[in-house]
Amino acid sequence: MERALCEFNSEGVAAFQELMDVERGKVKSSQPAKVSEDFFSMVEKIAGVSTLVQEVPEADPIDDSKVFDSRYDFGHYLHQTLPSELFKVQYSNVGLWAWISAVYLPQLLKRSSRGNSHDLWSTYRYIPLAYSKFRYYRHLAFISFWLHRQLGETAARLFLSRPMYEHSDAIEQLYTSDKDFLTTPALLEVSVEMYLDAESGTMKKKALGKETPGSARRLATKVAKQLQMNFDMHSMTKEQVYTLLPAEFDAWRN
C-alpha cells in the first residue's frame, strides 16, 4: 500500500533504537536477537505515529507492501522512488534511513528455519550511527540505494545480488578497496561477467578469495592497480580489458 515518504524525528529514532536495544540486550553482541511478530508490530506502530515522524516535503509516496527478491531490486526501487536532492537522501539523514529500515524491517531480517522468529543483528545495519559514519556501507537500506544512485546498475548488480537481509562480503572487500576500480565501467562489466553465476545471479564460490588466482579481490586490489598505471582504463571497453588480464583470470571467463 502506498504511503507518504516520512522520516523519524529525534524522538522517533530514539524509540526505534530502544526497541532494538531491548532485543539486542538479550544476546551476546556476536549473536542475532530472535524477534517475533510482536516486535514488528511495535516497529510498525512507531513508524506511523504522527508525533514521531514527519513527511518528506515534495517526495513521491512509497509502497510499503512491495516485496523484493534481492537487495539489488530493493536498491533499484529506492533509487527510482526517493528524491533526487542529495541533502534529502544522504546517509547523515538519520531519520529517513531509520524510517525506511523500520518500514521494510521484516524483509531486512532473516526468518528462522522454523519460521517463528527473525534474526536482528547490530543496530548500525538499520539506523545510521555517528560512530559508524565511515562504515555507512553496512547499512542495509542505504548502501542498496546508494550503489544504484552513485555507481549505476552494473556496480549494483555486482555488490547487491543477494537476499535482502544478507550483508555483502563483496562490499566489505571490493567496494572499500579501490575507488578507481569502482568508477571504471569496463572493469565492473568484466567483474559481473566473470564472478556472478549466470543462472543464479549470485557470487561464484571463491570469487572473493584473497589468494585465489583470478579472484575478484585480486582484480580489484592488485591487478587493476597495475593496469591503471599503464593504461587509460576509463576509456576502454570490456573486450579490451579482457585482452589485458593475466592468464590466471582465464578460468573465470567460462
How is this structure best described in words?
A hairpin with a 6-residue loop joins β6 and β7. A three-stranded antiparallel sheet has the order 3-7-6. A two-stranded antiparallel ribbon has the order 1-5. Strands 2-4 form a two-stranded antiparallel sheet. It starts with a strand and ends in a 10-residue tail after the last helix. It is mainly alpha-helical and about 250 residues long. It has helices spanning about 10-25, 35-45, 70-80, 85-90, 95-105, 105-110, 140-150, 155-160, 170-175, 180, 185-195, 215-230, 240-245; strands at about 1-5, 5-10, 35, 55, 60-65, 110, 120. The protein contains 13 helices and seven strands.
Keywords:
254 residues; mainly alpha; two-stranded antiparallel sheet; 7 strands; globular
What is the secondary structure topology, with strand pairs?
Blueprint: E1 2-3, E2 6-8, H1 10-24, E3 33-35, H2 37-46, E4 53-55, E5 62-63, H3 71-81, H4 86-89, H5 94-103, H6 105-108, E6 110-111, E7 118-120, H7 140-151, H8 153-160, H9 169-175, H10 179-182, H11 185-195, H12 216-230, H13 238-244
Helix pairs in contact: 1-2, 1-5, 3-7, 3-8, 7-8, 8-11, 11-13
Mean of residue pLDDT values: 93
Helix content: 40-55%
Q: What's the assembly state of these chains?
A: single chain
Approximately what portion of the residues adopt beta-strand conformation?
5-15%
Largest sheet, if any?
3 strands, antiparallel
State Rg.
20 Å
Order of helices and strands: EEHEHEEHHHHEEHHHHHHH
Shape: globular
The order of strands across the largest sheet is 3-7-6
Between the first and last Cα atoms, what is the distance in angstroms?
A: 44 Å
Number of strands: 7
Determine the structural class based on helices, strands and strand pairing. mainly alpha
Q: Unreliable stretches, pLDDT < 50, 5 or more residues?
A: none
Tally of helical segments:
13
